[in-house]
Amino acid sequence: MSANATLTIALSKGRIFEQILPLLAAADIYPLDNPDTSRKLILPTNQADVNLLIVRASDVPTYVQYGAADVGVAGKDVLLEHGGVGLYEPLDLGIARCRLMVAGQPDALAAAHIGRLRVATKYVRSAERYFAARGQQVEIIKLYGSMELAPLVGLADLIVDLVESGNTLKANGLVPLELICHISSRVIVNKAAWKMKHNRVMDLINILRQTVSTDSFD
Ligand SMILES: Nc1ncnc2c1ncn2[C@@H]1O[C@H](COP(=O)(O)OP(=O)(O)OP(=O)(O)O)[C@@H](O)[C@H]1O
Ligand SMILES: O=P(O)(O)OC[C@H]1O[C@H](OP(=O)(O)OP(=O)(O)O)[C@H](O)[C@@H]1O
User: Could you tell me which residue ranges the ATP phosphoribosyltransferase catalytic domain spans (predicted)?
Assistant: First the structure.
C-alpha cells in the first residue's frame, strides 16, 4: 500500500487513460502532465495527495496486488490473465469495451477435425479455459502482440484476441469465429488499501459509479 497520506492510481496510457480522464474529472482529479508527451511515470495531479502511475496495461494488476498502487484501472482481459490475487474488483467502468474472440481464416474451423489445433494468443489462461471447457485439445502458442499475423504465416490455425470494430481482422483476411466474453475496464483495489484507506477509496468509487451510471443514460 502506498504511503497513508496519498492515493496512488495505476493506469495505462492510450485508450484507458483517454477514457478515464472525464471520469477522474468528475472526481475533481486532473493530471498535471500528459503521458503522451511527458516521460514521467509518476504523474502528479491537481490534488497534492493523489498520484497517477503510468504502467503497461498488463502490469496494472501487479502494481495493485503488491500495493505499489492503491487503486488501478484494468481491462477484464488483463484481470482474467492475472487471476485477481490480492485485489478487489468493485466497479465496471464500461470503458474500453471490446470482445475476446477466437478468430482465424474463414475455413479454420472446418480443419478442426484433422488434428490438434494451434492457437496463438497473448491470453493464454483465457484460451486454455475456453477450449478446455469445450473439451477441445489445442496447443497454445504464447505471443505478445500482432496475433493476426500467426494464421497468415502458418504459425497457428486460430488466434484468441480482442476485437472491437473487426477492422484489424478484416485487414488481414481473418474473421471472428467464436465469442469468448465481453470485455470492459474495471476499477481494482489493493486489499490492504481497501481496509486502511477505505473512506478515500470508497469516495472515489462512489463518484465513479455515479458518473458511469449517469453516462449510460445519456
Ligand atoms: N481495440 C480495442 N477496443 C477497445 N478496447 C480495447 C481494444 N484493445 C484493447 N482494449 C482494452 O483496453 C485495454 C488496454 O489496451 P492497450 O492497447 O492500451 O494495452 P495493450 O497493448 O493491450 O497492453 P500491453 O501494453 O500491456 O501489452 C486492454 O486490456 C483491453 O481491455
Ligand atoms: O477490432 P479492432 O477495432 O480492429 O481492434 C482490435 C485490435 O485492437 C487491439 O490492438 P491495439 O489497437 O490495442 O494495438 P496493440 O495490440 O498494439 O496495443 C487488439 O489486439 C486488436 O489487434
Answer: 56-209
Residue 15 Cα: closest atom of ligand 1: 18
Pocket of ligand 2 (CB under 6 A): 145, 161-168
Beta strands 87-92 and 158-163: pairing type? unpaired
The CATH number assigned to the domain with range 7-96+184-214 reads 3.40.190.10
Right CATH for 98-181 from 1.10.3720.10, 3.40.920.10, 3.40.190.10, 3.60.20.10: 3.40.190.10
Distance 104 CA to ligand 2 centre (A): 15
Ligand 1 atom nearest to 183, measured from its CA = 31
Q: What is the ipTM of this complex?
A: 0.96
Provide the b/e sequence for 25-62 (b: ≥16 CB within 10 Å). Answer: eebebebeeebeeeeeeebebeeeebbbbbbebbbbbb
Nearest protein CA to atom 13 of ligand 1, as residue? 75
pLDDT digits (tens, 9 = 90+) for 75-111: 999 999 999 999 999 999 999 999 999 999 999 887 6
